[in-house]
Structure formats: structure tokens, C-alpha cells
Design goal:
about 45% strand; 5-stranded mixed beta barrel; about 100 residues; 8 strands; OB fold (Dihydrolipoamide Acetyltransferase, E2P); mainly beta
Length: about 100
């Protein structure tokens, strides 16, 4: 699983028929890059994930990829590589709260 921040959406009017109705979001993975870190830092890359929960821009989410992503969707044969499976409320790392929603 990957922690990521929702940065926007993707509109694709022409796509594989199995993707009809799928909401696509641009997400940026988040990292805790040192033992002393007090907050999550945005990574340098982005990916597109199917939104299965109704996540919004700016929210921190849990993303699964690969076969786990296909299993998370309604259709196990969809050409999906990343799916949002959770909206994060808080993140505690090494007994420090490094993220709290809102």
C-alpha cells in the first residue's frame, strides 16, 4: 500500500469499455524520509488511481497497485493498476503524529 495525496482528476471520454464509470484521480505518493521527520513529504512522481471511495483533492489516501488493485474493483478483469482503498484520518510514525486530517 502507498500513502498518497489526491492532486486532481483525469477525464478520459474514450477508454476501455471495462473502465466506463470509473473515476480517475491523480495522486502523489507521500514519504516519511527520515527518523526525525515530523510530517509527510510529497514525492516527485504521480500516478493515476481509480477512486472507489469518493476521495477529494487534498485528501491523504491509501492506494494499492497490481493484482491487489484488480481485486479491489468491482470487475476483477478490469485493466486497473492502482485503486484508492482508504481515506486516511491520521498517520503516526515512531510514536509521532505526522498527519491529521483537517
Amino acid at each position: 500500500m502507498i500513502l498518497a495525496c489526491v492532486e486532481g482528476s483525469v477525464v478520459a471520454t474514450k477508454k476501455n469499455p471495462k473502465m466506463t464509470g470509473a473515476r480517475l484521480l491523480v495522486v502523489r505518493p507521500l514519504v516519511v524520509d527520515s527518523p526525525e521527520a515530523t510530517e509527510l513529504r510529497k514525492g516527485s512522481s504521480t500516478l493515476i488511481a481509480v477512486d472507489s471511495l469518493g476521495a477529494g483533492t487534498g485528501e491523504v489516501v491509501l492506494v494499492v497497485q497490481g493484482s491487489s488493485a484488480r481485486l479491489a474493483g468491482a470487475d476483477k478483469d478490469s485493466p486497473v493498476d492502482a485503486v484508492i482503498v482508504g481515506i486516511v484520518d491520521t498517520v503516526d510514525a515512531a510514536k509521532r503524529k505526522i498527519y491529521k486530517a483537517g
